[in-house]
Amino acid sequence: MAEAEAELPATAAEEAAPEGDAPAPAPEDAAPAEEAAPEDVAPAEGASPEDAAPEDAAPAETEAHEAASPAEEAPPADEASRPEEGPSAVEAAPAEGAAPPEEAPPADEAAPAEEGAPGDEASPVEAASPAEEAAPVEAAPPAEAAPPVEAAPAGEAPPTPGPIPTLDLKPGPEAKVLSTLANGFYDREALKRQASDSELDVDLCTLVHGFGMDTKKRNNIHYVGPGILLFAVGNITELLDLETMSQSYLPGLDGGGIGAVCVHPTRKHFVVAEKGTNPNVYVYEFPSLNLYRILRGGTERGYSAARFNREGTKLATVGMYPDFMLTVWNWEQEAIILRCKAFAQDIFDVSFSEFFEGKLTTCGQGHIRFWKMASTFTGLKLQGEIGKFGNEELSDIAGYVELPDGKVLSGTESGKLLLWDGGLIKVVLMKPGGKNCHDAMIETITLDLDNKKIVTSGLDGFVKAWDFTAVMNAEPDEDIPTTTIIPLEEVLIGTDVQIKGILFEENHYIIQDEAGFLKRVGYPGYATKNLVAHHAGPIAALGTSARAHFAVTVGHDGTVRLWDYVATRLVYTRKFNSGGTCLCMVPYGLDPEGRQFAVGFEDGVVRVLARCADEWKLYGAFKPHKGAVTVIAYAPDLSMLATASNDETMFFFDMTDEEKPYKPIGYLHVPNKVTALCWSADSSKLLVGCKDGQILEVDTPDPKFNSNKSYHMITDPRTYHFTRPKPPKPEKPKKEEGEDAEEGEFGDDPGGLPPLGDEKEESEEEEEEEDEEGVGYEVKTIAYHADQVSKPGHFVVTLGGKAAGFLYECKLSDPEFVKLSLTHVAAVGFRDVSHSRKFLLSGADDGTVRIQPVRPIGPNGMAPEQELYEGFKTMMQPALPKYWHQPLHDGNCCVTGVALSFDDHYLLSTATDGSFFVHQVSLPAEVSAGEQDGDLTPVPKVALDPVEECIDITLKDWYSIEEAKQKTEEDHLIQLAEEKKMGMRRYLQTIRDEFQELMQANERRPETEQLPREEFEIDPQLRKLIENETAEKLEIARLELQWESEKRVLALNKLRSWFLDSVEVERIVLRPFKFKFKVTTFRTLRLPVSLLEEIEEIHRVVAMEDRNKATAKAGEGRVSLTTSQQINMNNDSGGRTVQALGATNDQAVDEKTLSKADLRRMQRKKREEEWAVFNKTKPDANYENPDDVAAIQEAINNMGDFKLKTDPSYIVPEEQRQNAMKKRRQMVLLEHSIYNIKMDFNTRFLALRDVKNQMIKDIQRSNERIRHINDKLDIQEDVFKPETLADECPEMRDQVTEDDLKSFEAELSTREAEAKAKGRGGFGGGDK
Description:
Layout: H1 33-36, H2 64-68, H3 188-191, E1 205-210, E2 222-225, E3 228-233, E4 236-241, E5 247-251, E6 258-263, E7 269-274, E8 281-285, E9 291-295, E10 303-308, E11 315-319, E12 325-330, E13 335-341, E14 347-352, E15 359-364, E16 367-376, E17 379-386, E18 400-402, E19 408-411, E20 417-421, E21 424-430, E22 442-448, E23 453-458, E24 462-467, H4 468-472, E25 482-484, E26 489-492, E27 499-504, E28 508-513, E29 517-522, E30 528-533, E31 539-544, E32 551-555, E33 559-564, E34 569-575, E35 580-585, E36 596-601, E37 606-611, E38 616-622, E39 629-634, E40 640-645, E41 649-654, E42 663-669, E43 674-679, E44 685-690, E45 695-699, E46 718-720, H5 762-771, E47 779-784, E48 794-799, E49 806-811, E50 814-822, E51 828-833, E52 839-844, E53 848-853, H6 864-875, E54 884-887, E55 895-900, E56 906-911, E57 916-921, H7 961-1004, H8 1020-1059, E58 1063-1065, E59 1069-1070, E60 1079-1080, E61 1084-1085, H9 1089-1119, H10 1123-1148, H11 1156-1176, H12 1186-1198, H13 1220-1273, H14 1298-1318
Parallel strand pairs: 21-25
Antiparallel strand pairs: 1-57, 2-3, 3-4, 4-5, 6-7, 7-8, 8-9, 10-11, 11-12, 12-13, 14-15, 15-16, 16-17, 18-19, 19-20, 20-21, 22-23, 23-24, 24-26, 27-28, 28-29, 29-30, 31-32, 32-33, 33-34, 35-36, 36-37, 37-38, 39-40, 40-41, 41-42, 43-44, 44-45, 45-46, 47-48, 48-49, 49-50, 51-52, 52-53, 53-54, ...
Helix pairs in contact: 9-13
């Protein structure tokens, strides 16, 4: 079977065009025409692509490129099949003087030259026919050709561009020449995927509406015009007019889905960055939607983010796995400026700096990175600095904004705001009380300089405004790297809203709600309006009515939705408490009105919903499984329903009772999780496919199976072990001289697709075979072959893993497959037949959908109960060769549902990316009967529907049907035992009552007639006997429990030893009586014995050193009686002698007898004598103080040349040097000091606690006294009752009181009651 997934056609070499017209884009390995043309026709440097070659210039063949092409020297492996340049390519010699390259880089890593050459990956190019050629342009002779300039490596600036010759490529089998329109735009039609010979026309299906949206995709909503919203969904770029709610679509061109979209600052262009193999970035003009530029070679598999700079001159893109390449483009010239690997994990966003030229920021999973374009000696490069989280927890970052001073404010998963300065966190912003700024991940941060505020939003549903100045000037507190900030405004959009993206306009917000909505929030006032409603996340299944234009979808968000796809509207929705997993329409034989659908959920519940005029009505709810329901299938004869689950079970229900359908029969175990299920045409057996690749055939169970004790059925299924076929080794085409051999042609497959598991090297093939021994492939779909008469036991199956993409016809008795047919490139996860049984529908795990006509069989008119059977047979018929095949959804998602309307006029498809597309099918008149209105019979409203609504199952831990059965049996036995106990208790109570009556009668009689108490004992020995028996029983019970008790005691002692024995003081809380604050002890560990010994030894050593120092100091004092001190002593004695002499002379003279002149003469003499004595004490000029001399000599001998410690040549004296022993001593003493400080605080704390406990006792005694007084005075008064909480006395944890035991018994009783309430059964009430 031919494969429809053809390669995307690529551009041809640029054709010469009249001056002023836009040239056609060149192939990725070829230079543009204006670069390859001679100098006299080349445009000026920096000219736009519209500057073309001179008039009448036409493509011409030349051999110049054969000598100049770098790719011929070392072509990459993935370029071996590039087609040869056709006659339509303009080939000219490069300009003279071009510098030869050192080595030609691979095509997928070379940056294009500045003249706007496209990227390096291109699909084959088909040569134009000679009839289309114009007059050739004369090319320069080969001798004058210079080698091409080497492209700059990633992260470097491209060198000065020179003419790059085109490569000698051979056109591929499906190559197309891409031309531009006369107005300078690319022709999108030429870029579209073209149908192969085995395919129907690509335009067979036309997209008319898209219901879904990937609401989890970041940066996915943009205003591209007034009231025009741009976003990507699946493989479609959608433009939504918010006024009229009309939609416009741009299907993807590379076939792998849309990776990212962004809008130019002028809103005149927008970018669509796609996914696929070597995808491109497409720049469209708005509002014409013409393709303006194509950027090639930016990544390998897909783009995750794109953003223009403020001026709109540059574009930054980021790739997905595996390369994560950051690329900066001159998008007008279609040229790469710089590129570098951004990170090793997913990247969420990229942006240019609004304030500093050449700076960028990227963020994503577990990182934020700051980039700058730096000029180095080798040219311009991208240099990135990873943000270091330091003490903060590593976090994904989605929202960030750069501030005018260069700092960056970012959010986190926990809701904190981080202010980055360089690559470090400057401060963490928190709300008062240590609360995070948001209660969930912050997704967007916007800077509003006009209003001086910063606006954040997150998954908690809040939009908050913060003061810009406070944020920019935030500084950390002294002790912790956080600061407090108060929001200016907080707006809660909704309690169940999860904001993923937000657009700010003058008077409103547009909010992308991860819960599945697009909302418009008015400003001011914040009035909220839902614009569109989608599934939040993957769509699990799709079902359509066989009589009307209605569709049903179930999503992982737990909603079941009804759609009118002709009127393009959502009719209504009902949400359940668990995600949906599968869907099956109830056959018309069981539901003649066609209103009922059976839906499976992740919690194992199956619900039967009926379509009413106003909402869904629940007809039934039952829980057959404990795991997610994966398959629901009705038997062709409508006698049974089979459900399968991830819990490795299958459950069967009897459907023969019209009054009470869905009667449980039983369940059986299977080896692994069930992924596919199919009934045989006669309903006698089932095929079961498992996740591990096992295939079973199970006989239909007996509806009368005895399930009184259990629903578990024991069966012996037949098992089929699939043998993976060895891939046919492709014959390598012979290489012709001067050209590379083509790749991509294998066997006779017209789609040009490689056979299963194609390996390029024989060694790789052998290694793969070794790795795959014993490995199974997940069964995706399975069905019996239609012709069970001539081919009994034959079935068809599609598998995952490396067996994906093929339809295998197998036989239960033969492990080797019988027939192999190619269907898709990826695993086929969905396969069904249309309502008309004319088309086979399939969807793959790469987002592609296929419609294939089948040969009609069976009668045209049949009873409703036969439709399923005949449709099943039709699905197994050999398909006609022609088919329609297109990538409709994201290439990384799985198609979960494909359906045609009952009149085959509409195609509907859903996928795990949340997309839901409706296409209009244009079938030939001989095949289609045209669009029909269908059954327009009105359905009743819920209130008028005669069937009463069933009670839903709302608890997550609701018992399954089997658990309810077992619990019911257990409850029955317990009830019998309880009844027996109660009977015995009633009998004993009767005896007690009779005994009490006898005792009372005895007391009423006169004392002389009363019998003593001992007389009422019937047998005196009986009491002793009973007491002995009781003691023996207690001893037996003690002995029985002794081992368990000892075990518990040992366990408790171990816990105490591990957690408590090493603790000197626990963390104890102390609270005041009337205030809310509290104080706690320091939780202090006991010092280890070894540490205590070390502390004692250190103290002993320190004391010894102190004594030695004191002794040395005392010795120095005794020896320090210096000469100067003796001189001073002599001087003192001399002075005292002089004074004594003076005093003697004075005493010898009678002053009263002397005249004044004599007295003056005596005073002069006395002064002269004093001066003489004083002058004798004058030291010699050469005298030196002995103390100073000794000190200087000591310094010379011991202290060196007195260098400062900051001097590089300073040497620390031996006694001042630090070593490990000294540091250890210091650490030990510090530890001991900390311990002493803590214990001193704890001692005073515990003393305070004792005071509080004593006060509590005093208060309790006073309260008791007050109560007695109030009782006597008949006064009701509330008194203060102090209490002690558990954390205030943790040492009392082991003491169990009677109140504790009663509380525990009450808790056990509550648990038992809840368990009984949950065990009401696996059904949610059933029909009443």
